[in-house]
Design a protein that fits this description.
Structural class: mainly beta
Radius of gyration: 37 Å
Number of helices: 10
Keywords: Signal
InterPro entries: YD
Mean pLDDT: 90
Helix content: under 10%
Largest sheet: 42 strands, antiparallel
Protein name: RHS repeat protein
Organism: Chitinophaga agrisoli
Strand content: over 45%
């Protein structure tokens, strides 16, 4: 019996572009496009799931398909991705399942602030004005800019756009002049198209974005989604997202296209917010304004239907025909089909979902690989298991970050949280509210606990809540208060009668306080028995002095069911005196009765002042991180690989840092003006705050990095293999300190993601805790733009406003600084202006120290980088060679060629945003040039007048003449090389087919004109090359003249045939021997046959089974 056992240990080392520590080899070689012979498909991997370096979030996905063009520069990966950072209570499941996303293509989404930027009244159409103009009292109040913005007829804040496509992500804003500012600075070229009357209601909208990357590949986003926000009378409908519809090669000849269906998701509630405004001086004009807002939205959206790839394959996305029960109007994805060009072969994945999480939300349970157009053959599935007990959407039990809690509180409690305010607000340092602390157990609800692979192996995820060391989490304030302190006292007494005997019962308490103006007592009756009175009945109590004279007498008339309380005053108590409480049972008309009573009061102490301490410790932060990840092979009960994680600093405290902290409460001052005062030009006077504002959602943005509210400065990954230690990896990361949330009104958080999460140092230890390798990265930060330029400042200035002055009507009888003035039109505002901050972080130097375990000796290498200030790429690298001599590599790019006056074709490359190709590399030792490698580009090729492609590759050694080493003689219109060779050497020609995606012939020692002539001429070669899916026989017959024509008798010819869905079908070598490759329905190599049909190799992919089964 033979079993396949795959177990390996992956140590993930984080690298950055241009982080090599040795100089490049400048010996040019030709990248041969001919395919190698196929090998057995790698067994489906299990385990080794990477973990986010600075967040601790496992990066889980199910790969579906990956395309990478050999010469056209196009690529696309399709996968199902899961976010293991925790499930928020209000989270809406995607059409894959809760926590899952279909990664296929890309999207640009908008965070709208105010109005859509491109609308008639939007930011792009609102000229700059300063803050004083915004509140200009000389304008009619209804026409001042801030009033118009408050009433949603003017836009004073720029929207934030987020993009994610093909492994790229980032954010940008658009200035008033249309300039695009990349928040995460990248040299992407972003263009927009605004179309009048494109939004329901007749407003203009951005209907298309085009992003060109640094290699000239264009990404078009033209399938747009419209969102309707409930309760927004003006501009309630806006374009909220743009989906990727095409990826175009730099030549424009190859495309990946994405098609979408229209969807209509019915109105649903996304979140709930409670707000409360309270007068800080109740005697002035007592008042509270409370509101409850359900945020609804309706989406006219898009769902991915089909992806068409250059080699003729298409990927179809098939959805259920019945609507989802958790999101009416939407449909769950049920199948992904990858189909060959002839629609005869196919494979794919079936998705199975249920509604097991919180009994209401779509939950992905299985992904089943299948073969055949109709899933005739199914493989073992991926399976997913989750932590139960996720509360329903919109449930009140949420922590500060929206994750589930199990804290018990009344269902009638509001969402505004309990708070400690260290600076105080209106004389209060503690405000009431619900417990919104993170619950270390409940916050895991809904998260993935186990992932089973088709191999039978599985991975178990042991997650834990985030932690951080931050003052907001360890709140403490000590306040000295004038006046004596009071001590709370409470006594409890059991009451019991049997057949109405005795007639009364005495209990006692001793008063030990100073004599106050009044002593307030509360007596609470908690019945222990149930029943009803025969007629009316009551339980009377009296409090008696030592001489028997009563001080108070009260009756409880509700003696069954719920508890009841009576509050009363006893003004003449004497310190140190014992008093009697007498309960009379004669008024009870029930034979037996049992209850417990509680007496509560405060006792004044003799001091003249006292200290009150307020403290609140929150040990956890919302969201999850990996504690332990265990990989099992499906054979042994012992995990083959275990990784455990620690998130502490060198001081033993949590190394986590909050990016921002929630802010729920702030103060302001409201004022009201009568019409006559408004007409007279009177404006906001200001003064001490008189209003307290509270809300249930943070008034200040809560920032996340890679989906986590915490970034860790230091982590340790402990590695075990088959139960034995395999060492550990210690990592240190950059992290910005938590700053102030600013002043009211709050502005959006400056989410400078490039300032945290960068790997600063990595230390690798062996099993004996010896350091094996240390890598240290030093960074340089770049901030932009230059706001000392007034034009740039005005271009991007936005305002956040809050109303403080209201136009109250004649006869208004509440105080003119009361919270009640907010019921009337706002006419003046507090404001804060803000600007977007952009930037990036690049590696300035890398220091690697490696230790020889045998000798203990260490070797240290240092590499330095210098960057172009405008294009961000590496311009120079500094090394030290084995002779301890300084080595410098200098890189030249198209922009440098243009700057030097060589514009053809390099200016055209810049125009197309083809800025990244290195056209020249020079190595210097001790500032003396040693060798140089140059690639010369050309435009206007005979068969391709559009593309800009390499023509020659040349080298130069020291002062010797330039030597042309490689020459490209011809390309086709899809940028595939047709003829290439060493200068003055043998040329190699290629013939392409399958829509010119694959080479079908490699001919060495021949010129392309002859090859083309042998095959029937240029038209015949072009026509056959454009065929998307020729048969193997057709390919063989078309290429047959290559082996028989005398003009190619000295040529070495290798030919190929393909299945676009699976790979190479046949390879015929120069001797005419053909190997045939056969695949199973899942695209895995099954058989290799020789020219006589005999089996050379056979592969069996049964997991954990004998090959005979």
């Amino acid at each position: 019996m033979r079993k396949f056992l795959i177990s390996c240990l992956l140590v993930v080392l984080y690298t950055t572009a241009f982080s090599q520590t040795t100089p490049n080899n400048l010996n040019p070689t030709f990248d041969n496009p001919a395919p190698p012979a196929p090998n057995a498909a790698a067994f489906a991997k299990f385990g080794n799931i990477p973990v986010g370096p600075a967040t601790g979030i496992p990066q889980i996905n199910v790969p579906i398909y990956q395309y990478a063009g050999k010469n056209n520069g196009l690529s696309l990966a399709v996968s199902l991705d899961y976010h293991e950072g925790g499930v928020r209570v209000d989270e809406v499941a995607s059409n894959i399942g809760l926590g899952w996303a279909l990664n296929a293509g890309g999207v640009i989404s908008r965070v709208m602030r105010g109005l859509p930027d491109e609308s008639f009244a939007g930011f792009l159409n609102t000229p700059y004005f300063d803050g004083a103009t915004g509140n200009d009292p000389h304008n009619s109040p209804s026409f001042s800019p801030f009033v118009r913005a408050y009433n949603r007829v003017l836009d004073i804040e720029e929207d934030l756009f987020n993009f994610n496509f093909n492994g790229r992500s980032g954010r940008f804003v658009i200035g008033r002049n249309g300039d695009v500012l990349m928040i995460d600075a990248q040299k992407l070229k972003i263009e927009k198209e605004i179309t009048p009357n494109s939004v329901p209601g007749g407003d203009a909208g951005i209907t298309k974005f085009t992003i060109t990357d640094e290699n000239g590949v264009k990404y078009t986003f033209s399938a747009y989604e419209v969102t309707w926000l409930g309760g927004a009378p003006l501009h309630g409908q806006f374009i909220s997202s743009w989906y990727l519809t095409a990826i175009q090669s730099p030549s424009g000849q190859d495309n990946i296209t994405l098609e979408y269906d229209d969807t209509h998701i019915n109105s649903y509630t996304t979140s709930i917010t409670e707000t409360e405004a309270t007068d800080l001086v109740p005697t002035l004009s007592p008042g509270v304004l409370w509101s409850y807002s359900a945020h609804d939205q309706e989406v006219y959206g898009k769902r991915l239907k089909k992806i068409s790839l250059p080699q003729g394959l298409n990927i179809q996305f098939i959805y259920n025909t019945t609507q989802r029960t958790d999101l009416p109007g939407d449909y769950l994805l049920s199948r992904i089909l990858i189909q060959d060009p002839n629609k005869q072969l196919g494979r794919g994945y079936i998705l199975q979902q249920d509604y097991s999480l919180s009994n209401s939300r779509a939950t992905l349970t299985k992904v089943i690989p299948f073969a055949g157009l109709n899933a005739e053959v199914q493989d073992a599935p991926y399976q997913f298991f989750y932590k139960p007990y996720l509360p329903p959407r919109l449930d009140n039990h949420q922590d500060h970050w929206g994750y589930p809690t199990g804290w018990i509180f009344s269902e009638h409690e509001r969402r505004i949280p309990h708070e400690i305010i260290p600076a105080g607000v209106g004389g209060l340092f503690e405000l009431p509210g619900v417990n919104r602390d993170t619950d270390s157990s409940a916050c895991r609800a809904g998260s993935l606990t186990r992932m089973v692979y088709p191999t039978g192996g599985w991975t178990e995820f042991e997650m834990e809540p985030n932690e951080a060391y931050d003052g907001w989490l360890t709140q403490y304030v000590s306040v000295v208060v004038e006046g004596p302190p009071y001590i709370d006292q409470v006594q409890s007494y059991p009451l019991f009668t049997q057949n109405t005997t005795p007639s009364y019962q005495d209990v006692y308490f001793t008063f030990n306080g100073e004599q106050p103006d009044a002593n307030e007592f509360t007596m609470t009756l908690q019945p222990n028995s149930s029943g009803s009175c025969n007629g009316s009945c009551a339980l009377r109590f009296e409090i008696l002095q030592p001489n028997g004279i009563p001080l108070v007498s009260r009756d409880f008339t509700t003696i069954f069911g719920q508890s009841s309380s009576i509050t009363f005053n006893l003004p003449t108590l004497v310190k140190g005196t014992q008093y009697t409480i007498r309960f009379y049972y004669t008024m009870l008309t029930v034979p037996n009765y049992s209850a417990t009573v509680y007496l509560k009061w405060k006792e004044k102490q003799p001091a003249t002042s006292h200290t009150i301490e307020y403290s609140h410790l929150q040990p956890y932060v919302g969201g999850l991180r990996a504690k332990k990840i265990s990989d099992y092979d499906g054979i042994s009960a012992t995990p083959v690989s275990v990784r455990e994680y620690e998130y502490k600093g060198l001081d033993g405290l949590s190394s986590g840092a909050l990016l921002t902290y929630p802010t729920y409460t702030n103060t302001t001052r409201y004022e009201g003006l009568l019409n006559v005062s408004v007409s007279a030009g009177q404006t906001y006077m200001g003064g001490p705050p008189l209003i307290r504002l509270r809300q249930s959602t943070s008034a200040y943005d809560i920032m996340y990095t890679a989906g986590s509210p915490v970034a860790y400065r230091r982590t340790i990954e402990y590695l075990k293999n088959n139960g034995k230690s395999n060492g550990k990896i210690e990592r240190f990361f950059s992290s910005a300190s938590t700053g102030s949330n600013g002043n009211f009104p709050f502005v959006p958080a400056t989410n400078a993601t490039w300032l945290f999460g960068s790997l600063k140092q990595e230390v690798v230890y062996d099993a004996n805790d010896n350091i094996v390798k240390t890598t240290t990265y030093n960074y340089t930060d770049k901030l932009m733009p230059n706001y000392s330029d007034e034009a740039v400042l005005h271009n991007f200035t936005s305002y956040s406003i809050a109303p403080v002055l209201y136009n109250v009507p004649d006869g208004f009888d509440a105080g003119y600084t009361s919270v009640k003035v907010a019921n009337y039109p706002a006419i003046a505002f507090l404001y804060n202006d803000y600007l977007p901050m952009a930037g990036r972080t690049d590696i300035e130097s890398t220091v690697v120290t490696e230790r020889d375990p045998a000798t203990g000796q260490t070797i240290t290498t240092t590499t330095g980088n210098e960057y172009d200030p405008n294009y961000y790429y590496v311009k120079k690298k500094n090394f030290t060679n084995s002779k301890n001599q300084p080595v410098v590599e200098i890189y030249t790019y198209p922009a440098d060629k243009v700057a030097a006056g060589q514009t053809d074709p390099y200016q055209d490359m810049l125009n197309r945003n083809m800025i990244n190709p290195v056209v020249e590399t020079e190595q210097q030792v001790n500032q003396v040039m040693q060798q140089k490698l140059s690639t010369n580009y050309k435009k206007n090729w005979p068969n391709n007048a559009v593309s800009i492609l390499p023509q020659t590759v040349q080298t130069q050694v020291q002062a010797n003449p330039v030597d042309v080493r490689l020459r490209y003689y011809a390309y086709d219109n899809k940028e595939n090389p047709q003829s290439v060779g060493q200068e003055n050497g043998m040329a190699t020609c290629f013939v392409w087919a399958y829509n010119r995606q694959f080479p079908i012939a490699e001919i060495k020692n021949a010129d392309y004109a002859t090859v083309e002539s042998v095959l029937g001429g240029a038209a015949a070669v072009s026509s056959f090359g454009n065929q998307v899916s020729p048969t193997d026989v057709a390919v063989k017959n078309f290429l047959a003249p290559l082996r028989t024509d005398a003009r190619l008798k000295n040529a070495l010819i290798t030919t190929y045939a393909y299945s676009p869905l699976y790979g190479v079908n046949t390879i015929t070598d120069p001797a005419g021997r053909t190997n045939t490759y056969e695949y199973d329905g899942f695209g895995r190599l099954k058989l290799v046959r020789d020219q006589d049909g005999k089996i050379l190799k056979q592969y069996d992919y049964q997991y954990q089974k004998p090959v005979t089964q």
